[in-house]
Design a protein that fits this description.
2 strands, alpha+beta, about 25% helix
Length: about 70
Amino acid sequence: MEKVVQLDVYRRRREARQARVPAPDTVPHYYCQRCDTDQFKLYATGTVHCSSCGALIRNIVVSPSPSAKERP
């Protein structure tokens, strides 16, 4: 069965839905460019990999904080 869609009504609904979306936070948002997910795994070595596809995320580096270096 075919469906008739009135584009002007469809576009108005879509614009209204997009207007309700809150503004994004000012903090950076990272995502995997291979599978487009934003969930990562942090390994003990400090490397970060995508939790979905396992790709190495090179633009996120985790290193010990200065206060952690001072601890015995």
